[in-house]
Amino acid sequence: MTSEQVADRTSVRDGEGSGKEASEGYQRGLGNRQIQMIAIGGAIGTGLFLGAGKAISKAGPSLILAYAIAGLVIFFIMRALGELLMYRPVAGSFSDYAREFLGPFWGYVTGWTYWLFWVVTGITEVTAAATYVQYWNKSIPQWASALVFTVILYLVNLISVKLFGELEFWFSMVKVTAIIGMILIGIGVITLGFSKAGDTASFDLLWSHGGFFPKGIGGTLMTLQIVMFAFLAVELVGVTAGEAADPKKTLPKAINTVPWRIAVFYVGALIIILSVVPWTEFMPGVSPFVAAFAKIGLPAGAGIVNFVVLTAALSSCNSGMYSTGRMLRDLALNGQGPKFFGQLSKKGLPLRGTTASAALMLVGVWINYQWPGQAFNYVVSFATISGMWAWIMILVCQLRYRRKADRGELPQSELKAPGAPWTSLFALGFIFMVIVLMGIDKDARISLYCAPGWAAIMWVSYLVLKKRNPQAFERKDYSLAAEEVSEAV
């Protein structure tokens, strides 16, 4: 097969000139700037704004190193995803790649697990949002705020995908502006010495209170679960592939910005915060950004930051509702989920799947009612393990794809992951290490208790569905050779 034939074949699979959109009926309404900001905003959520407070108290300044190393792993994961997306940008993303390279069962498990991840993450984010509301008024029950936010965000997702992208653009813009503003103010406090924190603010605070590793290497390692949770959702750009106006152009740009995003928004922000406020003053459940502004003596600034982190939480939950509807529809179209979820609205939105997911997110309201103090910790641990499953699938599928492409069975990707397969293998090893550490941490161990139960549900339901609809679980051959035979016939 010539290179021209390969290009033609890839174009058909992407929906160009085939009469059938690769987006499977979705409207490609997400432009370049929206995709870029969704990618940036997806990595900035409650994990940084709320979860970092607990991590700082556990590891001290060495948390900066933990974010830097984990950020490098995330970059390896995103470049692996980029290689797959440039090979075949589809709305099903991770589950679709799992079907192709690992088999229908793995696609089934990945699709439902990623759907579950976003449902649980939605609960996490709405929990965090309810916590932030109490900054202004502690008399408002946490569960009541969670209920209101869930309903509002569901209504937002009844709008067109283009407007969804626009809202996410401005949500992300607020977060980015706030972090950059905090960094600039912090630098001013450290270098010029203004405000009441100016007398003590110094980069020396990074090692003057027990050293850079005050809790030892073990303390740093035990924060990796929290750190990895902070990066969950960076892979959301893969779900937007079916609705991106120009995926071949916009997705690589979004993926290649990962290193500087992590360097500025995580590593840079933490360096400044911990140089303004000694790590010993941070407490779990208190936003490091709010604590920093309070230390500087800007109470209004603390209120503004609290509003920003509230926006961050709602933005992430909004993204969750967006992705859950798409994942349910992908499963339905492949016969691995209820056909009910396969229909789109007149505006090209999977409202049935979004509605069902939003209803389940209301479980978060009950969690906030029953355990308002522990709700965040419970859902964070389970969201982490289910989210990391998507990363594992991305890496394994990329390794399988690279081998097939190198043998000439599949077309080469336009965005190859640098250093692969070694970078992908390193990332897999790192993820498995984090899972082991979660088993050691009593607070995170609950997610590992839940994982076998979810696996059993997946296996039993797979056997039942396969018996009822064997065709939905037949393995498809995507190779160039198979397509040549099909074209010849």
TrEMBL record:
<keyword id="KW-0029">Amino-acid transport</keyword>
<feature type="compositionally biased region" description="Basic and acidic residues">
    <location>
        <begin position="1"/>
        <end position="23"/>
    </location>
</feature>
<feature type="domain" description="Amino acid permease/ SLC12A">
    <location>
        <begin position="35"/>
        <end position="470"/>
    </location>
</feature>
<feature type="transmembrane region" description="Helical">
    <location>
        <begin position="62"/>
        <end position="81"/>
    </location>
</feature>
<dbReference type="GO" id="GO:0006865">
    <property type="term" value="P:amino acid transport"/>
</dbReference>
<feature type="transmembrane region" description="Helical">
    <location>
        <begin position="375"/>
        <end position="399"/>
    </location>
</feature>
<feature type="transmembrane region" description="Helical">
    <location>
        <begin position="349"/>
        <end position="369"/>
    </location>
</feature>
<dbReference type="InterPro" id="IPR004841">
    <property type="entry name" value="AA-permease/SLC12A_dom"/>
</dbReference>
<keyword id="KW-1003">Cell membrane</keyword>
<keyword id="KW-0813">Transport</keyword>
<dbReference type="InterPro" id="IPR004840">
    <property type="entry name" value="Amino_acid_permease_CS"/>
</dbReference>
<feature type="transmembrane region" description="Helical">
    <location>
        <begin position="289"/>
        <end position="314"/>
    </location>
</feature>
<feature type="transmembrane region" description="Helical">
    <location>
        <begin position="420"/>
        <end position="440"/>
    </location>
</feature>
<feature type="transmembrane region" description="Helical">
    <location>
        <begin position="101"/>
        <end position="123"/>
    </location>
</feature>
<dbReference type="GO" id="GO:0005886">
    <property type="term" value="C:plasma membrane"/>
</dbReference>
<feature type="transmembrane region" description="Helical">
    <location>
        <begin position="446"/>
        <end position="465"/>
    </location>
</feature>
<feature type="transmembrane region" description="Helical">
    <location>
        <begin position="37"/>
        <end position="56"/>
    </location>
</feature>
<feature type="region of interest" description="Disordered">
    <location>
        <begin position="1"/>
        <end position="25"/>
    </location>
</feature>
<keyword id="KW-1133">Transmembrane helix</keyword>
<feature type="transmembrane region" description="Helical">
    <location>
        <begin position="217"/>
        <end position="237"/>
    </location>
</feature>
<keyword id="KW-0472">Membrane</keyword>
<feature type="transmembrane region" description="Helical">
    <location>
        <begin position="176"/>
        <end position="197"/>
    </location>
</feature>
<dbReference type="GO" id="GO:0055085">
    <property type="term" value="P:transmembrane transport"/>
</dbReference>
<protein>
    <submittedName>
        <fullName>L-asparagine transporter-like permease</fullName>
    </submittedName>
</protein>
<feature type="transmembrane region" description="Helical">
    <location>
        <begin position="143"/>
        <end position="164"/>
    </location>
</feature>
<keyword id="KW-0812">Transmembrane</keyword>
<dbReference type="Pfam" id="PF00324">
    <property type="entry name" value="AA_permease"/>
</dbReference>
<feature type="transmembrane region" description="Helical">
    <location>
        <begin position="258"/>
        <end position="277"/>
    </location>
</feature>
<comment type="similarity">
    <text>Belongs to the amino acid-polyamine-organocation (APC) superfamily. Amino acid transporter (AAT) (TC 2.A.3.1) family.</text>
</comment>
